[in-house]
Design brief:
With about 90 residues, the chain is mostly beta strands. The protein has one domain (about 1-65). About 0% of the residues lie in helices and about 45% in strands. Strands 1-2-3-4-5 form a five-stranded antiparallel β-sheet, with no helix packed on it. A hairpin with a 3-residue loop joins β4 (about 50-55) and β5 (about 60-65). The relative contact order is 0.22.
Length: about 90
């Protein structure tokens, strides 16, 4: 993966400060050889994918944008099992 830049982007889900990366894809198929992609992650602890742009040799261009986001609930920490007494 190659880090390209930081960028502010606006998508239907809102405006986000992002880090833009270019994945290195070494497989055949839709996103494989000859394709270029940029993935936009939020520049915060969540690292949400808010946008993806790709140039696909067979199809042309493909763009995906985050439409909405609803944060989930935090999982409760499991209590450590108590050791058995002899």
């Amino acid at each position: 993966m190659q880090v390209l830049r930081k960028e502010t982007v606006t998508v239907p889900a809102g405006t986000f400060e992002t880090i833009v990366v270019r994945p290195i894809i070494k497989t055949k198929g839709l996103f494989g050889e000859g394709g270029e992609a940029e993935v936009y992650f939020t520049d915060d602890h969540r690292r949400l994918v808010v946008q993806m742009k790709s140039k696909v040799p067979v199809i042309g261009s493909l763009g995906l944008q985050l439409q909405s986001y609803t944060p989930g609930e935090k999982l409760a920490a499991k209590a450590a099992p108590t050791p058995s007494e002899p």
